[in-house]
Amino acid sequence: MRRPLLTLLLPLLLMACPEDLENEPAYLLVDGFELVTAGGEGAGTEDIREVWAFADGEFMGVFPLPGRIPIFQLGEVTIRLEAGVHQDGRSVTPEIYPFYTAVERTVTLMGGEQIEIGRPQIRYRDRTVFGFVEDFESGEPQIFTDVAGGRGNWRVQSDVVRSGNAAGAIMLTDSNRLFEAATNTTFRDLNAPPINVWLEVDFLSEAPTLFGVLGTGGNAGVRVFDPGFVPRTSWTKIYFNLGPVIGSAGLGELRIALSSLLPDDLAGGTVYLDNLKLLYFTP
To answer: What is the helix (H) or strand (E) element at residue 248, kind and residue range?
Structure first.
């Protein structure tokens, strides 16, 4: 009589299990992260969806927040927690956000116990360069002032804001369906490898908006747009990885740009923007 394959393999599987997995794990309970910002870093808005967990340098997994993280290493263990975001707002591209600091703690763990971590504080890493912070607050110079296309209106208002006292608003109408604006500052050498350039945006919008770069290459204008957002009826945070756009543009000097287009089925609409941040690391 032939024995089922699983029956034959079971003793081997049990013998192959690491010793740690035979113990009941301890659990870390993580509610989320609190982003604390310093002067010149703008508001601490965030949309951290997951926590990436490591124990004594070993990767434990990615867990949606709030998370319950099993840790099989017991005794004194060094825990590292990294904040995870969705690149370009897509759930299929979770990432450790490179500009946020990690949380590290040394804890003593016992099998079956639960340790509440709560909402540990994180900050921007010290070597983060802020190319700009556009929060539209009074007294601060605006960044996206150069109209690059269309005839829509761009203004600062205080009726609909994400944080602070003001936010930007792009007013689109049936006769002004397109609006494009670029930064009044030119950025240099962002295409030096490795390219690690991100744009943070808070938005509430009735029209889709794309982000990209403008510049001149070989005596010709270069325009590359790719990441963007679709309309949302509540304030939403999104993290755009501009690396692929900057790499494909191949520009040593460039400006960051945005393009909003009113959908055909609307006679008018508004795009509200707040807390735009261009972040990168120096080579």
So the answer is: helix 243-249
> At 21, is the secondary structure helix, strand, or coil?
helix
Q: What is the pLDDT of residues 1-33, one digit of tens each?
A: 444 433 333 333 333 344 445 679 999 999 999
Please calculate the CA angle 213-215-221 and round it to the nearest 5 degrees. 115
DSSP codes joined into one string, the chain: -PPPHHHHHHHHHHHHS-GGGGSPPEEEEE---EE---TTS--------EEEEEETTEEEEEEESSEEEEE---EEEEEEEEEEEEBTT-TT-EEE-TTBPPEEEEEEE-TT-EEEEES-EE-B-TTEEEEEEE---TTSPPS--EEEEE--EEEEESSS-SSTT-EEEEEEESS--EEEEE-SS-EESTTSSSP-EEEEEEEEESS-EEEEEEEEETTEEEEEEEEEE--EEEEEEEEEE-HHHHHHHT-SEEEEEEEEE--TT-SEEEEEEEEEEEEEE--
Integer Cα distance of 16 and 9 in angstroms:
11
Q: What global pTM score does this model have?
A: 0.89
For the record, the structure tokens of 33 come out as 């992260």
- Please give the radius of gyration of the chain, using alpha carbons only, rounded to the nearest integer: 24
**Would you say residue 74 has pLDDT above 60?**
yes
Question: Per-residue pLDDT for 73 more than 80?
Answer: yes
CA dihedral 121, 235, 258, 238 (to 10 degrees): 40
C-alpha to C-alpha distance for 236 and 275, rounded to whole angstroms: 11
- Rounded Cα gap, residues 270 and 142, in angstroms: 19
**Which structure tokens are listed for 163?**
């944080």
> 46 burial class (0-12, 13-18, 19+ CB within 10 angstroms)?
buried
Which amino acid, one-letter code, is at 24? E
pLDDT of residue 106 exceeding 90, the answer is yes
